[in-house]
From TrEMBL:
It comes from the Bacteria. The keyword Transcription does not apply. Gene3D superfamilies: P-loop containing nucleotide triphosphate hydrolases. Residues 462-477 have a biased composition (Basic and acidic residues). This is NACHT domain-containing protein. Keywords: Membrane, Transmembrane, Transmembrane helix. Residues 462-482 are annotated as: Disordered. InterPro entries: NACHT_NTPase, P-loop_NTPase. Residues 99-195 form the NACHT domain. Pfam families: NACHT (PF05729). SUPFAM superfamilies: P-loop containing nucleoside triphosphate hydrolases (SSF52540). Coiled coil: none annotated. The chain crosses the membrane at residues 392-413, 433-451, 492-510, 516-537, 558-579, 599-624.
Amino acid sequence: MIRTNLQIGTMHGDISMLSVAAGELASTVRHLAGEVRALSAKELRSWGIRGQDALPVRWDAAAPELVDDGESAQDGAEPVSLAGQFGSILTTFEAVGSRRLIILGRAGAGKTVLAHRLILDLIEDSGAPHTGPVPVLFSLSDWDPETDLASWLTGRLVRDFPFLDTKDSTTGKRLAEVFVDRGLVLPVLDGFDELPEMRYRDAVKQISALDLPLVVTSRPEQYAEAARRVRPIGGAAAVQLEDLTLDQAQRYLRQNTSKLRAPAWDAVFRQLRTAPEEPTSRSVASVLTTPLMVMLTRTVYNDDGPNRDPRELLDIARFPTTTVLQDHLLDAYLASVYTRQAPGPRNGRRPNWTPDQARRWLGHLATHLQNRKTHDLTWWQVPSTLNRQTRILFTTAIVTSAVGFVTGLVAGLLTGMVDGIVHGFWDGLRDGILTGIALGPATGLASGLINERQFSQWHSRRQPERLHLRAPRQDRRPRSRSAPLRKLASEFNNGLLFGLALGLVFGSVFGPGYGLALGSALGIVLGTANFVVSALGDTYDPHATDPWTLLNLDRKITLIRMAIAVILIGTVFAVMTLYRFGPELERNFALYVPALLPFALLAGVVRLTFSAWGTWVMFVRLWLPLTRRLPWRPKLFIEDAHERGVLRTAGSAYQFRHARLRDRLAQWHRN
């Protein structure tokens, strides 16, 4: 293979030989740039920002104590002005010689929106095809600074852009790792203020040590505290977003409303200017200084929304404080977007959810995210909104209902009929009914306990899976040995424990010897089957670029595992029953086969409870709707919330449009 030096954008550090062919690498850079550009453009559109049609957010250089003194952050000997406005963020960034910029602004000031604008400008400025480092947004709320930052960035790239999981056969590194090592990505680290204060020191040290151009967004108070405790991020300039003026807010709101609504806005701003010291004027003026609140106001009092009059904002009895007014806008925003028809065609599949329903269900999800201290909403983590006792009891109830009183009872009757051939019909029928009654609850409880054991071990990493029924490809990534081995051992133990539990149940009916033999055989077979199928499974799929693709993939692998369990359990029951009852059954094989089938199906149902898709079905499709915490069609509801702009996508996860919205919904839900 011909090796080629490929410089992409500004080269930092020594020039080195890349182990990936230059053409392939450049093609991957262009692919990543296209994906990132589409995501950022979609984010800006969701806020109603098209082209330069945006609030005139302005900024200036931050206070000197927030800038690193150890390195020169700007080109040239003379300081360069960093002041600018929304359309000139690229100019400000390029004025920083180190290409390391901190964007500071209070909550709702527009930091994330500005970061997306910079991402688009960087990609478009590079020309077509894109040849510069690709700016990628990373949410720092999910980073633990005890984890190496470069490794975390690599993992996030793989999660959100699976085509970067291709392995370089020469170095053994994934393309995502190559991109981080070679400076082919420009990290845009959003939400430094979301990190715990106790982690500021580690975070500042790691970000400073990252030898890459980068952008960091934060609220000023939190970043100032980190700079005071440690120091500012190394080599980075800092700008601080300014509040909007009343003129800017009025101009924007008038431009986005009809002439009929304009007089009402004029009355509001006339009151703010003529009586600025009145409490109501101070509250409204304070709210309208942040882009987030102005955009919410635009949505709430837009022409095609509910029949609202913006002059109600001046009602001091309803809105005595700024906080009450902000909460009103957040609540009214949700009511407004759910009063309108969602964008896109309505084919009868999507119900018309009311604002109250949406608030209740979104509040449950927001509380779940707050409890987990994350912004990422993934379908396989939603069951963790329930406590441990609920998960165990409901799993027991599900398996008892589906297996114990249906499959178990039928199996018991058929087993009794088979047993009756040898020892008399009535004795066999009695044993069969006892088997069915014992089988359901005992099997259900065993499933619940084992499933919770698995959930507790893997809940923070439990993810949908993909099945490999072929030898590993040459371009697969190198895998850590310890974690997969621990999971394989856990899967084997789960199968062994469940088999022994079934053996105890059957031992209570057919005698301890038979129960011990059956339980041991089932445990070994189930444990081995779990081990083998888990070894074939993987949490990666190069085509899984959205949450519901992962759900479909996990459903497929779960059904495959259920089929394997059915075959294995049926075989073991056949062998053990022949061993137990001898050649008499060979003369009645037509009755013997249907007697074994329900027991085999039992194993399939239990196998379902051990999967991510199975827990989604049990808890998210059944229990949470039964308790009115989610709708009966949660997937459609989440998709609908995304289309309405309440949620946004972040790779394989959803996020609330803004942390303030998430926190307000969680507060409402708790109260």
